[in-house]
Amino acid sequence: MKMVPEPAGALATMMASPEASPSTSRDECWYMEKAGRLFGYDEIIAPWATKRYSLSIEGLHEEIKDIFQWLRPCRLEEAVRLEVFRKVKSAIKERWKGNNVRVSVFGSLRTRLFLPTSDIDVLVECEEWKDTSAMATCMQETANYLEEVGLAKSVAVFSDAFVPIVKMVEKDTLVNVDISFNTAQGVKAADYIEKVKEEFPVVEPLILVLKQFLILRRLNTTYTGGLSSYGLILMLINFLHHYGMPVRRKHPYSPEVNLGELLMRFFEVYAQEVNYDAVGISVIDMRYTPKEARRDGDKKAALLSIEDPLLITEYF
């Protein structure tokens, strides 16, 4: 007798993407439909499924709760990443021990909103590296040292990028590490997101689902036309201030919260209702700002425009 596994619900269908390329075991949803057909099942099998979900908003809510438990960082994953950060920090401090160098972590590891495929974001600060040429030299020497001590499997320096960065792959874990220099904005952004999480606890499950949704469609990197995690969370913050006030300070699993309803409304707002030709997304004012008021004559006016609340004049 063949056992029929529990199918996924609406979210598994949304997550499945024939264009996606799996990078970890948690990206098994890429295989779900193909595996189901191969073994003679008529329904998609989701690795996070714990029950049969109804094809309703309530069923979507239950499925988001399960995928959140499946995606959210466990203690081991966090410990591994913190150990990678400790080794990187130690190596950088050793290389520049004669300088007043500060090394800190920011981004999704600091906010605990990381996925299995997420990078570790590291910030290196030093007052002596204010000059652009000095910064480029220090970046290259840092990269060389990480390779020399056997910490990096591979390393690359992008000193001419909009945000200068050293990208490395840690040898033992194969975790990607992005090292920024003298750009404290990332730490401020992480602290800001922590405050938002206190105000809207539903941010955590919703942002993990949305990040995975973009990753499976290769839409999570800005330099290929995608959307950064920071941009995505700013969109979510703006959305929650418009449509999520009833769930403010409510636990994601409380009876007053329906994560399925919030997710579908998020997609409706940003896919069908926002006129990107005419408005940008403001998180400071919690409204949609006419682009003429901010970017008069900009040739890229039709693109998604999100105001950074930590840099009032900055859009990205």
From TrEMBL:
The keyword Cytoplasm does not apply. GO terms for cellular component: nucleolus; TRAMP complex. InterPro entries: MTPAP-like_central (IPR054708), NT_sf (IPR043519), PAP_assoc (IPR002058), Trf4-like (IPR045862). GO terms for molecular function: metal ion binding; mRNA binding; poly(A) RNA polymerase activity. GO terms for biological process: polyadenylation-dependent ncRNA catabolic process; RNA 3'-end processing. It holds the Pfam family MTPAP-like_central. Residues 258-310 form the PAP-associated domain. Residues 60-190 form the Poly(A) RNA polymerase mitochondrial-like central palm domain. This is Nucleotidyltransferase domain protein.
